[in-house]
TrEMBL record:
<dbReference type="InterPro" id="IPR037523">
    <property type="entry name" value="VOC_core"/>
</dbReference>
<feature type="domain" description="VOC">
    <location>
        <begin position="7"/>
        <end position="132"/>
    </location>
</feature>
<dbReference type="InterPro" id="IPR052537">
    <property type="entry name" value="Extradiol_RC_dioxygenase"/>
</dbReference>
<dbReference type="GO" id="GO:0051213">
    <property type="term" value="F:dioxygenase activity"/>
</dbReference>
<feature type="domain" description="VOC">
    <location>
        <begin position="154"/>
        <end position="273"/>
    </location>
</feature>
<dbReference type="Pfam" id="PF00903">
    <property type="entry name" value="Glyoxalase"/>
</dbReference>
<dbReference type="InterPro" id="IPR004360">
    <property type="entry name" value="Glyas_Fos-R_dOase_dom"/>
</dbReference>
<keyword id="KW-0223">Dioxygenase</keyword>
<dbReference type="InterPro" id="IPR029068">
    <property type="entry name" value="Glyas_Bleomycin-R_OHBP_Dase"/>
</dbReference>
<protein>
    <submittedName>
        <fullName>Ring-cleaving dioxygenase</fullName>
    </submittedName>
</protein>
<keyword id="KW-0560">Oxidoreductase</keyword>
């Protein structure tokens, strides 16, 4: 493969009630809502982007929240765990914080050089916090509820569940340019570049698990980074030449996207790093207003009437000195 991703760009999941979703990710997890927009393919629902201060690639977890969405089913053919990176020795604080917020957590477990705390969001989406001994230099979004010394640095990794690993491994290495890093029983780890937080995917082989159903509480797709549009165009051409069923390039306003499904069933995306989230509102005001792409602006009044009211907690835009 001529092209290699530098790591995760974002993960997109299906949520339920949008207000409950925003309260959890802004207040309980301490992320920032960097963009409030709509699902471009279904503008009757929000598309909410959570990340660090500016929504840098690799920090983002996004949601399509439908208030009455049915619950999904975890299983093979999907990403079954989304993990965030936190500082070393922070998991004790996080366990107390989450439990005080009414979130049931698992035990803190050790995996080689990492400690992991697993829990679920209000819709059942499986999340994990991972503390790596080598640390994570990325800057956090610092709020009063989740101070910077413990705050999430960005995505750490995703876990994809499959019935067998060989074909999925081929996609990760040949189509995305990842490299095999290590195996721990039925868990196979692949890394972009030198690996580490934000550049890792685990492939979990569970041949007897049921097939997953993508709905509320599950991941819709996993996006990987491309540096620019030129690279993405050439990358897509190479994927087509290799026989991969890849979409045309789609304008997502804040990045450009192509999508394809790996043989195990998980929907993957390659998204550009640019232009970013500050192209239509200032950095200090990210996420405050409903932003629509130009082709949906003529329908703004109708779209706003369909969307439920969303009250953002003050923590999303604290006063900056």
């Amino acid at each position: 493969m001529s092209f290699q991703t530098s790591g995760l760009h974002h993960v997109t999941a299906i949520g339920g009630d949008p207000q409950r979703n925003a309260d959890f990710y802004l207040r309980t997890l301490g992320l920032r809502l960097v963009k409030t927009t709509v699902n471009f393919d279904d503008p009757g629902t929000y598309h909410l982007y959570y990340g660090d201060e500016s929504g840098k690639p690799g920090s983002l977890l996004t949601f399509f929240p439908w208030k009455d969405a049915p619950s999904g089913r975890l299983g093979t053919g999907q990403a079954t765990t989304t993990s965030f990176s936190v500082p070393e020795r922070s998991l004790g604080w996080w366990k107390k914080h989450l439990e005080a917020s009414g979130v049931t957590t698992g035990d803190i477990v050790s995996r080689d050089a990492e400690e992991v705390l697993t829990f679920r969001d209000p819709d059942g989406l499986v999340l994990a916090l991972v503390a790596h001994q080598q640390g994570d230099p990325r800057d956090p979004w610092d709020t009063a509820l989740v101070p910077g010394e413990h705050a999430i640095r960005g995505l750490h990794s995703v876990t994809m569940s499959v019935t067998r690993e060989d074909a999925t491994a081929g996609t990760l290495t040949e189509d995305l340019g990842l490299s095999f890093a290590e195996q721990d029983s039925n868990r196979f780890r692949f890394s972009a570049g030198e690996g580490g937080p934000g550049a890792t995917v685990d492939v979990l082989v569970t041949p007897d698990a049921p097939r997953g159903l993508v709905a509320a509480g599950t991941v819709h797709h996993v996006a990987w980074r491309a540096p620019d549009e030129g690279t993405q165009v050439a990358w897509r051409e190479e994927l087509v030449d290799r026989g991969v069923g890849v979409t045309s390039i789609l304008d997502r306003q804040y990045f450009r996207s192509i999508y394809f499904r790996e043989p195990g069933g998980t929907l993957l995306e390659i998204a550009t790093d640019q232009p970013g989230f500050s192209i239509d509102e200032p950095l200090l005001e990210l996420g405050r207003a409903l932003k629509l792409p130009p082709w949906l602006e003529p329908d703004r009044e109708q779209i706003e009437a369909m969307l439920p009211k969303l009250d953002l907690p003050s923590e999303n835009n604290p006063v900056r000195a």
